[in-house]
Amino acid sequence: MTQTQKNFVKGAAILGAAGLIVKIIGVFFRIPLTNIIGTEGLGYYQLAYPIYTLFVTISTAGLPAAISKLISERVAKGDYAGAHYTFQVARRLFVALGIIMAVLMFILSPMIAELQKTAPAVYSLMAISPALFFISVLSAYRGYFQGLQYMVPTAVSQLVEQFGKLTVGLILAYALVSITGRPELGAMGALIGVAIEEAAALVYIMAVYRKKKGEILSKAAGLDPRGASREWKPILKRVLKFAIPVTLGACVMPIVMALDSVIVSRVLQDIGYAQKTATAMYGVLTGVVNPLINLPAVLSLALAMSLVPAISQSQSEGDGREVKGKSSFGLKLAVLVGLPATTGFLILGQPIIQMLYHNVQGSELVMATGLLQLLATGVLFLTLLQTMTGVLQGLGKPMLPVYSLIVGAVVKVVVTITLMRIPQVGIYGAAVGTIACYAVAAVMNIVFVVRGTGFRLDFMGHIGKPVFATAVMGACACLVYFLIGATSNTAGVLLSVFAGLVVYILTLLFTKGLTREELKLVPGGGKIEKIMIRIKAWK
């Protein structure tokens, strides 16, 4: 492996690890937030966040990658002056975009809140709008450092964002709710925290840039700063040419989630719910239940990230057999993650919510449990969707998952509106729409992978053994919770999850649900293989 390849792998590992930590923190952030501002306050928070995410995606999705690409090309030629000039042009673009997007969201906040039929949401929408400026400029610096193959500033800035949210956001939310007693202002405080954390991350990465700037420019000493590459218009044109298609693909789900924030709230009020009740219901769905459903997705996302370089390498070497094997293993891993997660949520749905969310009680607890158990059936589709996306990206077909998501998104909107207008279905229609989206997109991705690689489904390997191991796990978890849960709900949940996980892994190993070759692809798999041989479970 060359030094360049080593740097790439190391950088990918740093960003991957930081990304996973960020995802995990993001999931768990909403637990204390819900306990502070309640489900109504969480509803206001969740109504603003998808709109913010859409604006962020429009302004930053493809641009950092474009900057990174252009800068890495300059660095590869030894043109450090050109690389730095490219960054300066891009930074001006990002500053302008950040100002435009922040002002636009602030001005449109009253209209968006009116579309959502939730006037108090305007505080949350306005509070988070300044963050668009900070994250836009921050993205320019991230693209610059990534182009230099220096990933640490990007990773650390992501962690600064999340820890800032955990501290400043929660403190402000608690202070405003305690002082005013108004949940919408508590949500506003949490979102002011988002703006502050983005500013803090920007300050950090600018400090790193100032420190590294001299070192980088010293490499450009003696070079002509007025070379052909110093025209800003061609640079801007190349940046936009690369970024726009990426941005369009990245906008699919943010657009759907932004539409959801309007559709769900409006339809609930149209079928007879009061504004505050509708907001609380939306908060339960998107702030209480969805973070739990997304937990297994953190693991499947990590698997997808690891599959991209593995399959890409086999593809570049022309090893079709390896491509088939790794693609097949990706499908199996998605099932191995998704099935037990689905079963766990179905069995322990209510105890898990009671353990984590102290403020969710009575009818809200019943609704949250029903939504969690319903959405649990979509976890398998979500893990399949993410893992097969990684396979397709590794195969060099990144647009196919985008097409799948577009079709899934259209299905979601149609199903959500149709079912939610039935009063007896209500909020559960939104959950069914989400499941339909994941199912359609996952099936399409699987079809694309099968056609692209030619691997065949092994019923026992892909379905039979995982289902058997999951059934044994479920029985074990039920028994443990039955014995302990009546005494302590928290102890019952934790011990049943732990016992179920251990039994699940052991059942998979003893039934050879994972082969030796597959186990070697899993971190720590070699050690597990040695243990199984030592205890004579394997020959």
Main features:
cell membrane, Polysacc_synth, 3 domains, 539 residues, transmembrane helix, mainly alpha, globular, 19 helices
Architecture overview:
With 539 residues, this protein is mostly helical. It folds into three domains: 249 residues, no CATH class; 169 residues, no CATH class; 80 residues, no CATH class. It is built from 19 helices and no strands. The chain is globular, with a radius of gyration of 24 Å. About 1% of the residues have low confidence.
Provide the number of structural domains: 3
The number of distinct β-strands equals: 0
Q: What does the average pLDDT come to? A: 84
Structural class, judged by helices and strands?
Answer: mainly alpha
Please give the largest β-sheet.
none
Strand content: under 5%
- Intertermini distance: 33 Å
- Tell me the overall shape: globular
Helix proportion: over 70%
Taken in chain order, the helices and strands follow as HHHHHHHHHHHHHHHHHHH
CA-based gyration radius: 24 Å
Number of helices: 19
- The low-pLDDT segments are 222-229
Transmembrane segments: 12-31, 51-72, 93-113, 119-141, 162-181, 187-209, 239-259, 333-353, 365-388, 400-420, 426-450, 462-484, 490-510
Organism: Christensenella hongkongensis
Membrane topology: Multi-pass membrane protein
Subcellular location: Cell membrane
